[in-house]
Fold these 4 entries.
Entry 1:
Amino acid sequence: MRRNMTKRGLKVTMAIFLSTAFLLIAPFSVLAIDKYVPSGSNSFMYPGEPVPKDEMRVTIFGSGYGYVRGDQADQSIYVELGNGDTFVFDLGEGSEANYMAMQVPYSKMTNLFVTHLHMDHLGALPHLYTFGPSADRWTPMNIYGPSGDTPELGTK
């Protein structure tokens, strides 16, 4: 009987120790973030913010593989250059919602590179092509990539 009480007492003591240690350490972890992260805990770069002239920003707006889920769209990569140029590599189904959530305007999505003609790489193209002019994309859209699945349709 004494042995069981000792184990239970040890468990209670450890629980008290760990909760006290957490309360003492937690405030210092917040200070550590501000100390070691250059701009504090708010040092995130978002699409649309200025990019220094000699840099580029790459944002992944989709990395799925054909089965769109609520938390993962199909492939799409957004590239911003310091000179103001922007490029979209693939525009898979569901990725347009991520672009809208990050407030990337349609006018910044005029250069689209499609790697191949599968729907998980170009499924959101009809959305961008159709609704772009009704938003703020009044310039022609440039689409680069293969023109077909077989040599008869333009691939070599």
Note: Residues 2-42 form one domain.
Entry 2:
Amino acid sequence: MTPKLPRREREVYEILCAAAPITAAAVRERMADAPGSSAVRTLLSRLEGRGLVAHVEQDGTYLYSPTQAVEQVRGSALSQFVKTFFEGSAISAATALLGMSREADAQELAALEEALAKARARAASREERP
């Protein structure tokens, strides 16, 4: 589940999901209009307090990571994105994303074809039900 967070905490959390494990300094480097180092450490501490982030110490440096699997967070975030911007239609979202996409390679096209086949099978099974 994607947590509902204030803007800056969400920004830090998203950076961690994309680049963990990562230091506070590296988080700060990736932030837009980055606050001071102590503010970044405070944001990380708040996220740890919420149970969303954990750290390990390595050679005297803290490395931060999200506590949830990125795949789990990704699914929840994508669900929220589709609800917000595409009225809940995953097909509309996929169509829009494909319109923005660079040329797809054979592996990506095969994955897309497999996803379409599964969607068609689900639709056919729904139509067969009384």
Note: Helices lie at 7-19, 24-30, 37-49, 70-86, 90-100, 106-128.
Entry 3:
Amino acid sequence: MVKEFTEKDISKLKLEDILSFAAKSEIEAQHLYEKISKINRDASLETLVDRLIDEEKSHERKIRSMFNDFFPEKEIGEFDVDKDDFSDITEIKDEDNGVKEDNGVKALLEIAIEKEKRASEFYRTLSEEVDDKDAVSNLLSYLAYMENEHHSLLQKELSGRK
């Protein structure tokens, strides 16, 4: 869990890596919501999923913009850390959770809820630890807040389906 993410671990991350990872995470969230959208037959869920896709795209744009401000000569890419050190706290791999086109909406919502929770915790932890970069800390705090909102919206949607 993110709560086990220590300052020593965070010191392994460079700003470039944090922003690259964040952009990648937002793209993965978009893909998960697109999978839900493909199999969904509920109009109210369609509205929510479309909103979440738009918000994740907006997050990605903000991250890319900040990356370009700090690193104008570089392209967002893979983050330069040992992914195994962070895999338990940074992402839930779709293939590890059986995310497939034929999963039901409920199963995909459960995965999305967990991903949003972990994303919120990860962004919050990073926002508290990033050094001397107010704009970055503010963006990470904003992302933590928004991912927590997504988590709550998805929880509400899922509880209405039980």
Note: Residues 123 and 142 are 9 Å apart (CA to CA).
Entry 4:
Amino acid sequence: MKLSSRFLFWTTCMLSLVAALGALLHPIPAVAEDRTYLNKGEIQESLVGKAILSKNLQSGAVSHWAYHADGTVDASRSGMGKASGTWAIRDDGQMCVTMVKRTGCRYWFRKGDTLANADTNSPGAPVVAEVLFE
């Protein structure tokens, strides 16, 4: 190896090492995902009267939902059967569904082209489910 080739090799190695140490000492902060929480009217416009396929991100369960203008909702999941209930949207945009003597509430938001929901409306709240329209 010529002197200039060795110099270039070691210089490249040292620059790579310095860059790696810099990244460890000054990491780039994680970027929060862009979320736009929906208000009451936007939720109604986005969900009511549409056939929805919802995927729970924790369990992987996929279910079919239909929110009706009269405040009723129907849901079904393969192997679990069907259920009906009621839905309501609070002024702060929290949608609550009561079904089989249980009420669950979520906040809906857009994440890019995806519609999703979370248990709270804080920016870092874990995504519970993402939906597609059938």
Note: Residues 3-32 have pLDDT under 50 and may be disordered.
